[in-house]
Specification:
With 358 residues, the protein is of the alpha/beta class. The chain has two domains: 175 residues, Rossmann fold (3-Layer(aba) Sandwich), CATH 3.40.50; 156 residues, Glycogen Phosphorylase B (Rossmann fold). 39% of the residues lie in helices and 18% in strands. The protein is built from 13 helices and 13 strands. The strands form two sheets. It has a seven-stranded parallel sheet, sandwiched between helices. Strands 10-9-8-11-12-13 form a six-stranded parallel sheet, sandwiched between helices. The chain is globular, with a radius of gyration of 21 Å. The chain starts with a strand and ends in a 9-residue tail after the last helix.
């Protein structure tokens, strides 16, 4: 019998890369995704959007929970999967407890970060995670945090990024941008700091061109900074674009100024496009980027060193070309089959023995 799974998530544009390896596992027959809007088309997955009867947290606490319980009573799920604990894993936890299904929670990043939650909330999350059957994280940093907090190692998994190598790959396109930023325009990513670093880089390399891809609460501040720093003619800001790969393939490096992270999809996607990452190394970035081989890592909050690293690489075409070739091999470690293998190990730990789905 193949497996029927309930996924509670938001994930937005990241839904596809997370969901596809799970849904495509040969033991999985159906994935029902409980979220606030329809998502990308993924084989074997369908979306359930409950009516929003209450605002904010009440919607998560009541509407989504009751909808999930109702669906499980109509036709049981073999397991419940939540992406992030707050609020989606918490909703999944309530559904799983009411329906007697095992619970798996994946932590992409924010749940354990002091920049996102205070110490009391993080301790509460860890206690709740101990009640989950299995947990997965994006990399070694979160794994170490959970093990230090006493989470059992045999219930903890590291989930690779399921990068679509057909979509994220080098191409013969001209590299018309020297430097790229791809991400939310949010304090976490520090887009204003990125623009300041770009201005310092341009003082050393006057012909340098850049693109800032994304949208968010600091969009206005970023545009003001671009004008103030005199970058309007050399930094494009096209906003959010779903097809980020078209910009990554046309960029020479991805410049990273994030203050905190798990392991960003953007870093791995850029590398897969043959665009080395040069930037700060918070969270588990070191799991993907091998400093000096397929990218350059800088200690956080050292903009002078960041600019020096970017300038030296952009000024050495041979070194950059060799590094780009090595960066593209990241897909050997982060690909859908690797992610499917981890999901298979999770299913085995949960005692789920589904047969190959039709």
């Amino acid at each position: 019998m193949y497996l029927r799974l309930l996924v509670v998530a938001r994930l937005d544009e990241l839904m596809g890369p997370y969901l596809a390896p799970l849904a495509s596992h040969p033991s999985v027959g159906e994935v029902v995704v409980l979220r606030d809007a329809e998502g990308p088309a993924v084989p074997k997955a369908r979306y359930r959007v409950p009516p929003k009867r209450f605002p904010g947290i009440l919607h998560h606490a009541w509407t989504r929970t009751s909808e999930g319980i109702r669906m499980a009573h109509d036709r049981p799920f073999d397991a419940v999967v939540g992406f992030t604990y707050l609020p989606h894993g918490w909703v999944g936890d309530r559904i799983a407890r009411r329906c007697g299904a095992p619970l798996h929670v994946h932590l992409p990043g924010a749940d354990l970060m002091p920049e996102c939650h205070g110490p009391m909330v993080r301790r509460w999350i860890v206690r709740r995670l101990n009640g989950c059957d299995t947990v997965s994280v994006t990399g070694s940093d979160h794994r170490a945090r959970l093990l230090e907090a006493g989470f059992p190692e045999d219930r903890l998994f590291v989930l690779p990024k399921g990068i679509d190598a057909a979509r994220f790959r080098p191409s013969g396109e001209a590299r018309t941008y020297d430097v790229a930023f791809v991400g939310r325009l949010h304090p976490q990513k520090d887009p204003v700091g990125w623009l300041a670093a770009f201005a310092a880089l341009r003082a050393r390399l006057p012909a340098v061109r850049g693109v800032m891809l994304g949208d968010g609460p600091l969009a206005g501040a970023a545009r003001e900074a671009r004008e103030r720093l005199g970058l309007a003619t050399c930094v494009e800001m096209p906003g959010f674009r779903a097809a980020a790969e078209t910009f990554l393939r046309r960029s020479r490096i991805l410049l990273g100024t994030s203050r905190y992270e798990g392991l960003p999809h953007t870093v791995v996607e850029a590398m897969a496009c043959g665009t080395p990452y040069v930037g700060y190394a918070p969270g588990s970035v070191r799991d993907a980027v091998r400093d000096g081989e397929d990218g350059i890592l800088v200690e956080p909050s050292d903009p002078a060193r960041l600019v020096e690293a970017a300038a030296s690489l952009l000024s050495a075409p041979g070194r950059l070309s060799a590094m780009a070739g090595r960066a593209a091999r990241v897909v050997e470690r982060h690909h859908p089959e690797a992610a499917r293998g981890v999901w298979g190990a999770v299913f085995a730990r949960l005692g789920l023995a589904g047969s190959a789905a039709p």
